[in-house]
Write a structure and sequence with these properties.
Elements lengths: L1 H18 L25 E4 L7 H8 L17 H9 L3 H13 L9 H34 L2 E6 L4 E6 L8 E5 L7 E7 L5 E5 L1 H4 L4 E5 L19 E5 L9 E5 L5 E5 L3 E2 L4 E3 L3 E8 L5 H5 L9 H33 L19 H15 L7 H18 L14 E2 L13 E4 L6 E12 L2 E3 L2 H15 L1 H8 L22 H7 L23 H4 L5 H15 L13 H14 L4 E4 L20 H9 L4 H7 L16 E2 L5 H5 L16 H7 L10 H8 L5 E4 L3 H12 L3 E5 L3 E5 L5 E10 L7 E7 L6 E7 L1 H4 L12 H23 L2 E11 L1 H16 L4 H12 L4 E12 L3 H10 L3 E5 L4 H10 L8 E5 L4 H21 L5 E2 L2 E2 L8 H4 L4 E6 H9 L3 H8 L4 E5 L3 H15 L3 E5 L5 H6 L2 E5 L6 H4 L3 E3 L4 H39 L12 H11 L2 H9 L5 H6 L5 H4 L6 H25 L7 H23 L5 H24 L12 H5 ...
Parallel strand pairs: 15-28, 15-34, 28-33, 29-32, 32-33, 34-35, 35-36
Antiparallel strand pairs: 1-8, 2-3, 2-4, 4-13, 5-11, 5-13, 6-7, 6-12, 8-9, 9-10, 14-36, 16-17, 16-27, 17-19, 18-20, 21-22, 22-23, 23-24, 24-25, 25-26, 26-27, 30-31, 37-38
Helix pairs in contact: 1-2, 3-5, 4-5, 4-9, 8-9, 8-36, 10-36, 10-38, 11-12, 15-16, 16-22, 24-28, 24-49, 25-26, 27-36, 29-32, 36-38, 36-41, 36-42, 37-43, 38-43, 41-42, 41-45, 42-43, 42-45
Length: about 1450
C-alpha cells in the first residue's frame, strides 16, 4: 500500500505541474513547504485522493484499501447463522455438558434412554435461543437495508454532475452534496457551504442527544468561492489521522499543488448521523466511510455483564456436579458389588460378539457413565432459559412503571443491559457525579464581583425564591394565570414558568408504549432550546451595578480611533470589559425565535440610528424613576446576601468616592434593563399622563429583538443572559465577527480573530478580538479560578507602587469573594483580559498555524500555543452561578443512606462548592464528623491516614461496649460492619491532588480502610480518569457491588467501570446514556429503582434459582433411591416421556410467574422502610448456606416421596410403572406446593398457573397412557394412569405423602413467622394490616429506631472524644496571596500540606466536626504568616467545629466545614 500511494503521489504531482497548476481562490500561507520527496506513515495516517478526472487513477488504487459505506450491524449471515449460533451457545459449559450426555447415550453399552429422547431437551433449549437470536438479528438486517438504501447526491466524474445514488455506494474520496435537513451518510470534510460565512449548522441529536445546533466551518482557503463548488478544480491531497472513535478530536492537513499545507480539525468535519440544519447546500469530501466512521466506531452495542447471582449459580452448579459425581460413583460401586454376588453371569447379561462378558470393573465404569445420563437433570439446563425469560419480564415492568417516567422530558427508564437487573438490589456503593446529576444543570446567574467590588443581586435572589415557589406549587400557577396571585404582582407569569403536571394522555397511553409530548408548557409548540428556561433567562440586575454600567457605557462612547486611552485599572472601563467578555467569550450562537430557527449573522438595524447620544440621554432624563429606584431596594437580605452583611454591594474603601459620584437621581434608571422590562412596567404604572412611558422610550431607542441563544453548555448561556440583563446584548455571531448591542443601543462589531475553546486540561476559554473603535487586539479569557488566578499578571511587576497595591487588593478581594461564592454552593468563573501588540499577535498566529498543520504532535503544540497566549492576564472579576438541586435529591440520598448504601460524590468542582452542595443534599449532615484531606506530600498523607485510622478504630472499638439508657443496660451488639458503628456519622472530603499522592505512594489500602468507616465520601477536583480509577479501586479491592451515575461525557469512564452504570438523560447530551446499563431522567428515580425494583428483582430471582436447584435435586433423587432396589442397573420406574415433560411443561410455568410477579413486600413499605434493602446487600436470600439448606430439604422430601409409596406397595405384584406413577404424581404435588409456600403474592395469575400445571399433568398423562401402547418399547405405560385414578390408595398417597414431606418446612416457616426478628418478616406482617394501622406501625417503627440511635449516641465514651484531637490545618493558594498583602518581606516559601498537632485537653465529643479546620470569627478572617500553628498559645487554630447543638449562639449552621485559612511558614 505504501508503494502504491507514493508512486501515485508523484504521478499526480507531475500532472499538476503540467496542466493543472491552478490554486484555489484563497489559501492560507503556511510556515514551511515540503519540496523534497514526501513520505507518509500509513500506519498512523490516511492519504485521500479526490474522485475526479484528475486523480481518478490514484483514487482507484488507494480507495480500495478503505472501507466502503455499506454497514451491517448483524451478527450472522444466511450461511453462517447455524454454525456460528451453535458455536456461541456451546460457550455455555452447561450446554456442552448436555451435548456430552447426548453423545454418551448414543454409545450402545451406555444407552439409557432412546437416543432421540435424550436429544430433545437440549435441542429444544438450543432452538428457543436460536429463534430469539435470529429474530433480533433479522430486525437489525432490515434496519441496515433501510439505511444502506437511503439516497444521496454523489459527484460522478463522467457526468460531471451530482447523481443520486445510495448510501452504500459512497466511497472515501467522493464528493457529496447535501441539502438542508438531510442526514450525513459518512464522515465528510466540509469544503463548501451556501452560507456566506462558510458555516454549516448541524443537529447532533442522533449522535449525542444534544438538541442545540452545532456550527462547522469550511476548511481555510475555501471560504470565498463561486456560488457553485466545482469538484474538478479541486487539486489538493488530504492527509489525516487513522479512523478512531474520538468524536471530539480530528486532525489533518490539506496539501496544495505548491506543497503548502492547510491544517484542519474537528470544526470542519461533518460526522455521520448528524443532520444539516439552516443551511441550503453543503459540499464535502468523504474522509471515513462505513464502519470506519466515528459514529460506527462508537457503536459497540450492548455490553454483556455477568450478574452476581449468575456468578453464584456457576459455583453452585459445580457443587451439583460434585453431588452428581458422588451419586454416580455410588451407583458404579453398588453395581459392581451387586454383580459380584453372582458366581456366573446372570441371564439378563448379554455377551459381546466374541461371547465374552466384560469385567466387573469395566461394567462399573459403564454404569458410572450410565448414571450420569440417568441423573443428568440434576444440572438444571432449563434454568438459563428461565432466567432470561424472567429478566425480560422484569425489564417490561421496569419500563412501564409510571413513577420512573419523567413527563417534562417525555422519557421513561431505559434498560440497556437485560441481564443484570437483580444487581440493582445488591448495591453497596454509589458513585455519583454532582453537576447535572444531583443538580439540575440549569445555571442561573446569581451574583458577581468586578474589580474587587461585590454585587449581591438581591433582587435576583428574590426572583429565584419566587420562581421556586411557582415551580413547587401548581396552584400558584393557576392563580398567577388569572391574576389572582396576591403579593407577587411584580413577577411575570410567562408560559415557561408553568409547573409540569402529569397529563391524562401520559396515563392513558403509557402501557401501550404510545407516548405523546406532554402539554405541560405553554410554549411547547416551539422547538425546545436548551438552557433557555425562564428562570435561566430572566436576570434581575443589581441596581448599584446597573448605575455603574450606564455610566461606564457612556464613557465608552467617547472613545474613538484617534483618542485611545492607555489600559488602566479604572472601574468604568473594567465594568465594560467585564460584560463584553460575558457576551462574546463563548461559542453561543444567536438564532431567531421563529420556526424553523435561523442563525442571526447580520446585526438588526436600529430604529433611530440618527439619534445622538445626547438625545438618547435626554429621553431617559425625562423619565422620573425616583420611586422606581426605591422599589428595587429591599431591607430583607437574600439567602446569599446574609453572609455578606446588610449591604448588598461590598465596595473597597478606595472605590467609595467613585461610587458616590454615580448616586444621583438618574442613576437608578432601569431603562437599560432588557430582561426585566415587563416587571418594571407591571409594578410602576403611576407615571404622569403627559410623560412618555418607559416602554415607548425603549421601543423608540432600543428595540428588543426576538432572539434565542443556543449554547453548548449551561454556564455559557447563563453568562450571556446575565450580560443581556445589563443591556450588553449579543445580537449576532459569525466565524469572523461578533456583534454586541451596548446599553445606549449602539452596535459594536468585533473582528473575531481566534477562538481557543474550553477543554478539561486548560479549564478555560479565550477569544481574540479586535476592538472596532480602538483597534486594539484584546484577549478575553474566562475559566476556573483554580487555574485563572495563577495566570494573572504579577503585581510586583507594576510600574508604580499605587498600581501594585491596587492589583494586589483586587486579586485578594476577588479571591475572598470566590470563597464566599463557593461556600454558598455557587459555581465560580474568573473573567480576565489581555491587550496584545500587533507584532506579538502575528508571531503567535504563525506559531498557531504551524501547530495546526502538524499531524504527529498536534495536540501538544496546540496546548503550548494556548498556554503561551493565556498569561499575564488582567483580572476583571468573577461570577457566581447557581445550579439548583434536582427535586427529590435530599430525600433520595437520605433514603439510600438508610438502606446502608455508601455514597461517594465525584466532581470536578472546587471543594467549597462541593461541600455546600453535599450539605444541601444531605450527603453530609451537620452532626457528621467530616475529615478533609488536602496534601501534596506523600509522607504527610500517610501520617494523616494513619492518625485518622487510629482515632476511628478507637471510636469503633468503644462502640462495642455496653451502653446505658436511663440506667437500663442496653444489649451489647457488635456492629456487623465498621460503617454501622463508627461510619454512621463520619464523612470524608478529598481532592484530586491527594488522590494522586495516594496512588503514587501505594497508600490505597489505608485509604480504603479509612473509607470503610465512612458513610459518605466527597471527592473534589477529580478528572474523568480519576473517577474511573476510584470506582475500579473500590470495586476490585473491597469486592463490593458498585453503581455509578452521571449525565455527561466526563462520566462515561466512571459509568463503564462500575458493576452497574446509570446515565441521566440531562442537558449534557446522551454520551452517558449510551454508555450506561440503565438510563433515567431524574436522580430521584434512583430511589424506587433500587429500593423497590432492585429489591424485587433480586428477591424473585434469588428464590427462583434456589427453587430450581431444589426442584431438580428432589426429582432426580427419586431415580437414585430406586437404584438401590434394581441392582444399580440404571433402570427407571418413571416413563421417559413423563420425565421429559416434568421439567419442560409441568413445573416450568410457576417459577416463571414467581420470578416476574411475586412481591415479598409492597412498594409502599419498601419506600417507607429503606433498611429492608440490606437483605440484598448481604445476599440473605441466596448464599452458600441457603443453597445447602435447599439441598438438604430436597433430599429429605425425595426420601419421603419415594419410601412412603415403596412401603405402601411393598410385597405387592404391581408393575414398575404402576409403582412409579404415584411417585411421579406425589413429587409433582410436593414441588408445586413447595412453590406455593414460597409465594408471597397471590393473584389470579398465580392461582391459574398452579392449577393449570397440576391439571396439565393429569390430562397429558391420561391421554398419553391411553394412546401410547408401544411408544417406548419394551416398556408399556398403557392405561397405567387410568387404573391409578380408580384406586383409593392412590388418592390417599397423594394427600398424605406431600403433607409429610412439607411438614418440617411448614413448621419452620411458621416458627420463623411467629418469632422471627428479620426486618423483612416484620415488613411482611405490616403489609397484612389495614392501611391506617399499617401507616401507624411504620411510624412507630421509625420512631423506635430513632430512639435507639439517640440512646446509643448519648452514651458517654472516652473513645469518641478522642476523635476531636486530630487537628490538621491546611494552607491554600488563596492564603498565599492574602498573606503576601500583609507581609512586606519577599515572597516566602509555604508548605501546602496538612500539619499534625494534638491537643490532649480538647473536650469535644466524637460527634463534633473534625479539627482539620478552625473556627474563625468571620469567613473573611485571615491570620498573618507569622502566626505559627505549632505554638501552644494558638489553641484556637486547632479548634473543632462542633455540631450545631454545641456551637455558640452566633455560629453558622453551615460554617462547620470551612477549611483552615492558616499556613505554616518555613
Amino acid at each position: 500500500m505504501a508503494l502504491s500511494v507514493d508512486s501515485s503521489w508523484y504521478r499526480w504531482q507531475g500532472r499538476v505541474k503540467d496542466g493543472f497548476s491552478q490554486t484555489p481562490s484563497e489559501s492560507t500561507p503556511l510556515l514551511y513547504s515540503a519540496k523534497e520527496k514526501q513520505s507518509y506513515n500509513l500506519s498512523q495516517q490516511r492519504v485521500i485522493f479526490p474522485n475526479n478526472r484528475i486523480f481518478h487513477q490514484d483514487w482507484a488504487k488507494v480507495s480500495k484499501f478503505y472501507s466502503g459505506n455499506r454497514i451491517h450491524t448483524t451478527k450472522y449471515t444466511l450461511f453462517n447463522f447455524l454454525p456460528r449460533n451453535l458455536f456461541e451457545q456451546f460457550h455455555r459449559w452447561a450446554n456442552l455438558y448436555f451435548l456430552f450426555l447426548v453423545i454418551l447415550n448414543w454409545m450402545p453399552p451406555i444407552e439409557v434412554f432412546h437416543r432421540e429422547i435424550t436429544m430433545l431437551p437440549l435441542a429444544l433449549v438450543l432452538l428457543i435461543i436460536m429463534v430469539k437470536d435470529g429474530v433480533e438479528d433479522y430486525e437489525k438486517y432490515r434496519f441496515d437495508q433501510e439505511i444502506n438504501s437511503s439516497n444521496i447526491q454523489i459527484y460522478e466524474k463522467k457526468e460531471q454532475d451530482y447523481v443520486q445514488k445510495h448510501w452504500k455506494d459512497v466511497r472515501v474520496g467522493d464528493f457529496v452534496q447535501l441539502q438542508c435537513n438531510e442526514i450525513i451518510p459518512a464522515d465528510i470534510l466540509l469544503l463548501f457551504s451556501s452560507d456566506p460565512s462558510g458555516v454549516c449548522h448541524l443537529e447532533t441529536a442522533n449522535l449525542d442527544g444534544e438538541t442545540n445546533l452545532k456550527q462547522r466551518c469550511v476548511v481555510k482557503g475555501f471560504l470565498y468561492q463561486e456560488p457553485r463548488f466545482e469538484p474538478e478544480l479541486f487539486q489538493n491531497k488530504i492527509v489525516c489521522e487513522k479512523p478512531n472513535n474520538n468524536l471530539n478530536k480530528f486532525k489533518g492537513y490539506m496539501e496544495h499543488p505548491d506543497q503548502t499545507r492547510t491544517g484542519f480539525n474537528s470544526e470542519s468535519l461533518l460526522l455521520r448521523g448528524c443532520t444539516i440544519r439552516n443551511t441550503e447546500v453543503v459540499v464535502g469530501i468523504v474522509i471515513y466511510a462505513g464502519h470506519e466512521t466515528k459514529a460506527m466506531l462508537n457503536n459497540s452495542g450492548p455490553r454483556y455483564k455477568r450478574s452476581k447471582i449468575e456468578r453464584r449459580i456457576n459455583i453452585d452448579i459445580f457443587f451439583c456436579v460434585g453431588i452428581l459425581f458422588l451419586m454416580c460413583l455410588i451407583g458404579a460401586i453398588g453395581h459392581g458389588l451387586w454383580k459380584g454376588k453372582f458366581s456366573e453371569p446372570p441371564p439378563f447379561d448379554v455377551p459381546d460378539a466374541n461371547g465374552s462378558f466384560p469385567t466387573v470393573a469395566l461394567q462399573g465404569f459403564y454404569m458410572f457413565l450410565t448414571m450420569i445420563i440417568l441423573l443428568q437433570i440434576l444440572i438444571p439446563i432449563s434454568l438459563y432459559v428461565s432466567i432470561e425469560l424472567v429478566k425480560l419480564g422484569q425489564v417490561f415492568f421496569l419500563h412501564n412503571d409510571i413513577d420512573l417516567y419523567d413527563e417534562e422530558a417525555d422519557l421513561a427508564i431505559q434498560c440497556r443491559a437485560l441481564n443484570i437487573t437483580e444487581d440493582l438490589g445488591q448495591i453497596q456503593y454509589i458513585f455519583s457525579d454532582k453537576t447535572g446529576t444531583l443538580t439540575e444543570n440549569r445555571m442561573v446567574f446569581r451574583r458577581c464581583t468586578i474589580m474587587g467590588n461585590e454585587f449581591s443581586h438581591q433582587e435576583n435572589a428574590k426572583r429565584l425564591e419566587t420562581q421556586r415557589e411557582l415551580d413547587s406549587d401548581d396552584e400558584d400557577w393557576t392563580k398567577c394565570q388569572y391574576g389572582a396571585l396576591s403579593g407577587l404582582s411584580t413577577v411575570r407569569c410567562p408560559g415557561g414558568t408553568k409547573p409540569l403536571r402529569r397529563s391524562q394522555s401520559a396515563h392513558a397511553h403509557f402501557q401501550g408504549h404510545i407516548r405523546h409530548r406532554s402539554m405541560g408548557r405553554c410554549d411547547s409548540a416551539q422547538s425546545p432550546v436548551a438552557f433557555s428556561s425562564t428562570i435561566e433567562k430572566d436576570v434581575a440586575p443589581d441596581q448599584g451595578l446597573l448605575t455603574k454600567v450606564k455610566d461606564a457605557a457612556l464613557k465608552l462612547e467617547t472613545l474613538t480611533a484617534h483618542n485611545v486611552t492607555k489600559p488602566s485599572l479604572s472601574t468604568g472601563s473594567s465594568i465594560t470589559d467585564f460584560f463584553l467578555a460575558l457576551a462574546i467569550c463563548n461559542s453561543v450562537m444567536v438564532s431567531t425565535t421563529t420556526e424553523p430557527r435561523q442563525r442571526v449573522t447580520i446585526p438588526p438595524q436600529m430604529k433611530c440610528l440618527g439619534a445622538s447620544l445626547e438625545k438618547i440621554h435626554q429621553l431617559f432624563q425625562r423619565l422620573k424613576f425616583s420611586s422606581l429606584s426605591q422599589s428595587f431596594s429591599s431591607n430583607a437580605p437574600s439567602d446569599l446576601g446574609e453572609s455578606l452583611g446588610p449591604n448588598s454591594t461590598v465596595i473597597d474603601s478606595d472605590e467609595q468616592d467613585d461610587l458616590s459620584s454615580h448616586s444621583c437621581g438618574d442613576s437608578t434608571d432601569v431603562g437599560y434593563q432588557s430582561s426585566s422590562k415587563e416587571e418594571v412596567l407591571s409594578k410602576h404604572d403611576t407615571m404622569g399622563a403627559g410623560s412618555p412611558s418607559l416602554e415607548d422610550v425603549l421601543d423608540s431607542v432600543i428595540p428588543e429583538p426576538a432572539l434565542c441563544y443556543e449554547a453548548e453548555s449551561p454556564d455559557e448561556a447563563a453568562l450571556v443572559h446575565a450580560a443581556r440583563a445589563y443591556n450588553f446584548t449579543l445580537v449576532s455571531r459569525t466565524p469572523e465577527q461578533v456583534t454586541v448591542r451596548l446599553p445606549q443601543g449602539t452596535l459594536l462589531t468585533f473582528d473575531l480573530l481566534y477562538t481557543l475553546g474550553f477543554d478539561s486540561v486548560r479549564k478555560r476559554m479565550s477569544v481574540i478580538v479586535r476592538h472596532p473603535w480602538t483597534g486594539e487586539i484584546i484577549v478575553y479569557t474566562k475559566g476556573a479560578d483554580s487555574v485563572m488566578m495563577d495566570l494573572l499578571e504579577d503585581p510586583a511587576k507594576a510600574k508604580d507602587p499605587a498600581a501594585e497595591k491596587k492589583l494586589r487588593k483586587i486579586q485578594a478581594r476577588t479571591q475572598k469573594h470566590l470563597d464566599w461564592y463557593a461556600r454558598d454552593g455557587l459555581r465560580t468563573l474568573c473573567i480576565a483580559k489581555k491587550v496584545l501588540k500587533e507584532e506579538d499577535f502575528q508571531r503567535w498566529v504563525n506559531f498557531r498555524h504551524e501547530a495546526e498543520a502538524s499531524l504527529d504532535n498536534q495536540d501538544e503544540l496546540l496546548m503550548e500555543t494556548a498556554q503561551h497566549l493565556e498569561t499575564q492576564l488582567t483580572l476583571l472579576g468573577a461570577t457566581g452561578i447557581e445550579d439548583r438541586l434536582q427535586e427529590g435529591v435530599p430525600d433520595t440520598i437520605a433514603a439510600l443512606r438508610e438502606a446502608g448504601i455508601r455514597i461517594w460524590v465525584l466532581t470536578g468542582d472546587k471543594q467549597e462548592t462541593a461541600v455546600n452542595i453535599a450539605y444541601s443534599c444531605k450527603l453530609l449532615d451537620q452532626t457528621d464528623t467530616v475529615y478533609t484531606i488536602n496534601t501534596e506530600s506523600q509522607e504527610t498523607c500517610e501520617s494523616i491516614l494513619n492518625c485518622a485510622l487510629e482515632e476511628v478504630k478507637r471510636c469503633y472499638n468503644m462502640s462495642k461496649t455496653e451502653h446505658k439508657f436511663f440506667g437500663i443496660h442496653l444489649p451489647s451488639q457488635a456492629p456487623s460492619s465498621p460503617v454501622e458503628a463508627a461510619g454512621s456519622d463520619i464523612g470524608l472530603v478529598i481532592d484530586g491532588r491527594t488522590l494522586n499522592i495516594i496512588f503514587q505512594g501505594n497508600l490505597e489500602k489505608k485509604f480504603l480502610e479509612l473509607t470503610k468507616y465512612c458513610r459518605s465520601v466527597l471527592c473534589c477536583r477529580f478528572t474523568p480518569l480519576q473517577k474511573s480509577m476510584v470506582v475500579k479501586l473500590v470495586r476490585d479491592k473491597l469486592k463490593v457491588m458498585t453503581l455509578s451515575i452521571g449525565d455527561g461525557a466526563n462520566d462515561v469512564s466512571m459509568i463503564q467501570a462500575a458493576d452497574i452504570g446509570i446515565g441521566i438523560s440531562g442537558q449534557e447530551g446522551m454520551q452517558a446514556v449510551m454508555s450506561s446499563d440503565f438510563a433515567i431522567a431524574r436522580f430521584k428515580h434512583l430511589k424506587k429503582l433500587l429500593l423497590v425494583h432492585g429489591h424485587w428483582c433480586y428477591s424473585r430471582l434469588a428464590k427462583m434459582v434456589v427453587y430450581y436447584f431444589y426442584k431438580n435435586v428432589c426429582y432426580v433423587n427419586l431415580l437414585f433411591w430406586y437404584q438401590f432396589f434394581c441392582g444399580f442397573s440404571g433402570s427407571t420406574m418413571i416413563d421417559y416421556w413423563q420425565m421429559i415433560f416434568f421439567n419442560l411443561f409441568f413445573t416450568s410455568l410457576p417459577p416463571l410467574v414467581f420470578g416476574i410477579l411475586d412481591k415479598d413486600v409492597s412498594d409502599e413499605t419498601l419506600l417507607a422502610l429503606p433498611e429492608l434493602y440490606r437483605s440484598g446487600q448481604d445476599s440473605q436470600l441466596y448464599r452458600l448456606s441457603t443453597f445447602w439448606i435447599a439441598m438438604m430439604d430436597a433430599f429429605y422430601q425425595s426420601l419421603i416421596c419415594f419410601f412412603i409409596p415403596y412401603l405402601t406397595y411393598k410385597d405387592s405384584d404391581i408393575s414398575v410403572f404402576t409403582f412409579g406413577t404415584p411417585i411421579n404424581t406425589i413429587s409433582l404435588i410436593t414441588i408445586l406446593l413447595h412453590q406455593a409456600m414460597e409465594m408471597k403474592t397471590w393473584t389470579f395469575i398465580h392461582w391459574s398457573v398452579l392449577m393449570a400445571s397440576f391439571l396439565l399433568y393429569f390430562v397429558v398423562s391420561l391421554l398419553y397412557n391411553a394412546t401410547c401402547i408401544t411408544c417406548n418399547s419394551p416398556t408399556n405405560p398403557y392405561w397405567i394412569m387410568e387404573k391409578q385414578v380408580s384406586d383409593p390408595t392412590f388418592y390417599l398417597l397423594c394427600f398424605l405423602t406431600p403433607v409429610a414431606a412439607l411438614l418440617p418446612r411448614y413448621f419452620l416457616l411458621a416458627l420463623q413467622g411467629t418469632y422471627g426478628k428479620s426486618p423483612l418478616l416484620k415488613a411482611q406482617k405490616l403489609d397484612k394490616l389495614p392501611k391506617e394501622k399499617k401507616e401507624l406501625a411504620i411510624q412507630e417503627w421509625r420512631k423506635q429506631k430513632e430512639r435507639l440511635s439517640i440512646a446509643c449516641q448519648a452514651a458517654p465514651s472516652t473513645g469518641n472524644a478522642s476523635l476531636s484531637h486530630l487537628q490538621v490545618p491546611h494552607f491554600t493558594e488563596q492564603e498565599s496571596r492574602d498573606n503576601s498583602l500583609n507581609d512586606s518581606s519577599p515572597m516566602k516559601r509555604h508548605v501546602r500540606d496538612w500539619v499534625l498537632n494534638r491537643d490532649r485537653s480538647s473536650p469535644h465529643p466524637c460527634s463534633g466536626h473534625v479539627g482539620y479546620k478552625q473556627n474563625l470569627p468571620s469567613s473573611s478572617a485571615r491570620p498573618s504568616p507569622d502566626q505559627h500553628l505549632l505554638g501552644p498559645s494558638e489553641a484556637r487554630t486547632f479548634g473543632v467545629f462542633k455540631s450545631p447543638q454545641m456551637d455558640s449562639p452566633g455560629a453558622s449552621s453551615r460554617g462547620s466545614h470551612r477549611r483552615s485559612q492558616s499556613s505554616l511558614t518555613i
